[in-house]
Design goal:
12 helices, alpha+beta, eight-stranded mixed beta sheet, 307 residues
Length: 307
């Protein structure tokens, strides 16, 4: 298969502790100018200095070998089959490398604007694309996601196919590349479900997905604890570590986001009805919280963003 292999310079190791990290510019990682998708297959990887991405994310599959990956001053060993996401603002580097091969899929979610639909309500999405990338807990790597041999081959093929499409440059190649990227994400989510591990991140992912999809039906902290399988103190502590907020505030924000979607998508429904459908039993409380989080009243939001 005709895919691009970038061989990094083995002399590139620089210690950036105490110095601004190297900025990985968009022009370097996105081969198709103006299109926010790229693949970098890095073979014979040498030590790589502390760097940060220019406002894009990086999905990393370790293809071979081992290394120490450092991210935000946390260090852990990676090996073939590990898969993880690095958000654009996270400083990271690789050293103590032995035969390392990396498959990097670069993308800018804000530019792609994909219709994620119900995928965001799955535990797999919450864990892989929200909880794990944002975590700075020292134990975050103890139960990290690792692919089986069969899933590794499947996802490796999908990444190579995406790379091939990005460099093809014929009519419709961007459309095909977006489709290949969506298929890759779906394969990763399915692989996560097959490798199911009942740990704290997964339980939080189940709860976060439930709050997003059925937030209007979750009525109490006790119900949240039952969904997550945790005591109240453990839930509040772990949720805060994963999402930077309490589960109650998270639920409130999910309800307001749901209301905002309904205000625009269902102009035939009254504001009061949308408040109830979003989980608010008190209309005045709904209006206050909506204004606090969105900066305007529900009616003003509808007028501003509705068709």
């Amino acid at each position: 298969m005709n895919y691009l292999i970038h061989v990094m310079n083995r002399t590139a190791k620089i210690d950036y502790r105490g110095w601004p990290p190297l900025m990985m510019e968009r022009d370097y990682v996105f081969p198709d100018e103006g299109f926010p998708l790229g693949v970098r297959i890095i073979g014979d990887q040498g030590p790589y200095c502390h760097h940060v991405h220019d406002n894009y994310s990086e999905l990393v599959l370790v293809g071979a070998g081992t290394a120490i990956h450092e991210i935000d001053h946390l260090r852990y060993r990676i090996k073939a089959g590990d898969l993880f996401l690095i958000q654009g603002d996270r400083v990271h580097s690789y050293d103590d490398i032995d035969g390392l091969v990396l498959y990097n899929v670069l993308f800018d979610p804000s530019k792609l604007k994909l219709p994620w639909y119900d995928l965001v309500d799955s535990a797999a999405y919450q864990v892989l694309f929200r909880i794990d990338p944002a975590s700075n807990a020292a134990d975050r790597f103890e139960n990290r996601f690792h692919l089986s041999a069969q899933d590794f081959r499947l996802i490796e093929e999908r990444i190579k196919r995406l790379d091939e499409l990005l460099w093809r440059r014929d009519d419709g190649h961007r459309f095909a590349a977006v489709g290949a990227f969506v298929e890759l994400i779906h394969c990763i989510v399915e692989a996560y479900n097959r490798a199911f591990v009942d740990n704290v991140p997964h339980r939080l992912g189940v709860l976060a997905g439930r709050l997003g999809k059925h937030g209007g039906e979750v009525r109490s902290v006790g119900e949240m604890c039952r969904i997550a399988g945790m005591s109240q103190p453990t839930l509040f502590r772990q949720f805060k570590r994963a999402f930077g907020d309490s589960p109650l505030n998270y639920l409130l924000r999910q309800r307001v986001e749901r209301a905002a979607e309904l205000l625009v998508g269902h102009p035939e429904w009254s504001v009061a009805e949308i408040g109830v459908r979003s989980g608010f039993s008190d209309g005045a409380y709904f209006s206050r919280q909506f204004h606090r989080l969105k900066g305007c009243s529900p009616l003003q939001y509808r007028r501003r963003y509705g068709s």
